Amino acid sequence: MQSKDIRHHEGSIFEHSLEVSFRSYKIAKKLKMDYRAIARGALLHDFFLYDWRTKGNRNLKYLKESHAVSHPRVALENARKYFDVSDMEADIIKKHMFPTTIVPPKYKESWIVTMVDKYYAVKEYQEGFFRKHSLQLRFYQLQQTLSFLTV
């Protein structure tokens, strides 16, 4: 399964990771931080490669934990399998779900990705919520208009 095929609220994991990486990179560059590590860590922060909403797709090793708690560890395992990951990049990946991961991020770059990820997760969820409810509202208004015309 590819990250482009896995949903993340309203887009794909791939789109979400690109957005979080790009925004984190811009912040890090402006603040003269390690923008390379932040971009790489953010790209890999959701590299878990399964659809957590589908029963049976979860990593068996972490099945008893919620996806919010386990997916950073799965993402880090996958990242290390395919890439050389620095300590900072590992911290970014493993702790981006703080406070659900309990241990706080060690680096300023990790904190940035954590906050940017939360911002975009809320934004994506909100966009989907309003899109869904906007369509329902339009349908309701159409029903009201049609019932008015038939009276």
Report on this model:
This protein is mainly alpha-helical. The protein has one domain: Hypothetical protein af1432. It is built from five helices and two strands. It has helices spanning 13-30, 35-44, 67-82, 87-95, 108-150, and strands spanning 7-8, 11-12. The protein has a two-stranded antiparallel sheet with strand order 1-2. Helix 1 (13-30) packs antiparallel against helix 2 (35-44) and helix 4 runs parallel beside helix 5 (108-150). The radius of gyration is 19 Å and the shape is elongated.
In short:
The chain has helices spanning 13-30, 35-44, 67-82, 87-95, 108-150; strands spanning 7-8, 11-12. With 151 residues, the protein is an all-alpha fold. A hairpin with a 2-residue loop joins strand 1 (7-8) and strand 2 (11-12).
What gross morphology would you assign?
elongated
Give the strand line-up of the largest sheet.
1-2
Q: Identify low-pLDDT runs.
A: 1-8
CATH-defined architecture: Orthogonal Bundle
The number of distinct β-strands equals: 2
CATH C-level label: Mainly Alpha
Radius of gyration: 19 Å
> Which range best describes the helical content: under 10%, 10-25%, 25-40%, 40-55%, 55-70% or over 70%?
55-70%
Sheet/helix structural class = mainly alpha
The figure for the number of domains is 1
Q: On the 0-100 scale, what is the average pLDDT? A: 82
What is the count of helical runs?
5
CATH superfamily: Hypothetical protein af1432
As for the CATH topology, it is Hypothetical protein af1432
| Main sheet record | 2 strands, antiparallel
Terminal residue distance: 54 Å
Strand content: under 5%
Summarize the helix and strand pattern as letters: EEHHHHH
Domain HD: 14-119
Pfam families: HD
Protein name: HD domain-containing protein
Organism: Isachenkonia alkalipeptolytica
